[in-house]
Design brief:
Layout: H1 13-38, H2 40-50, E1 57-58, E2 71-80, E3 86-90, E4 94-98, E5 103-111, E6 117-126, E7 134-139, E8 145-147, E9 152-161, E10 176-185
Parallel strand pairs: 1-7, 2-10
Antiparallel strand pairs: 2-4, 3-5, 5-9, 6-8, 6-10, 7-9
Helix pairs in contact: 1-2
Amino acid sequence: MESQPTKQIKPGPGLSRDALVASIAGFVVVLMVGASYAAVPFYNWFCRTTGFNGTTQVAKSAPLSKPLARTVAVRFDSNVAGGLPWKFEPEKTEIDVHIGEVVTVYYTVTNQSARTTTGQAAYNVTPLTVGAYFQKINCFCFTEQTFAPGEKREMPVVFYVDPSIAEDHENDGLNTITLSYTFYPVREPADQPIAAGEPDKRTRPPG
């Protein structure tokens, strides 16, 4: 008897579609993880937009209602990531504030290196459920900060705890909030190539 030719089974369209979806999902996960470590400004924007990880909110003005009689202790934490030669610390480690009261506190940063350095701070509050109610009117964390060699600077944070938190029964037992910052180094931009025909204005050593 003659043997029948072996038929090759081709993968159906469902299999290739599943593989495509898995590839896209994996790419998104890698992109988000990479953004959180390599692009602090993008990470901060993502967190502010989604409320992820206890990220605080941005307010344009003080609350319209008067501060409540209820108070909460706000603690201040400061950290510096590797590669950034800065000393970073709050002037006060803890204060008591009325909910709805606008408060200004200061952090001190010192560039301990002999070169100009730039950093940007990532931030959050704990408990994480408080992030939606912790409103910042002004903060050094909104932009990159550049320091000259040895420069020391006091930088303010203006904030309040939104009075609407009193209506959130999940936070009825809240008595302490910790505001935490971590400064990450920002790489200096690379030199742009000189276009053809454009004179090179960069300083060159005498030849």
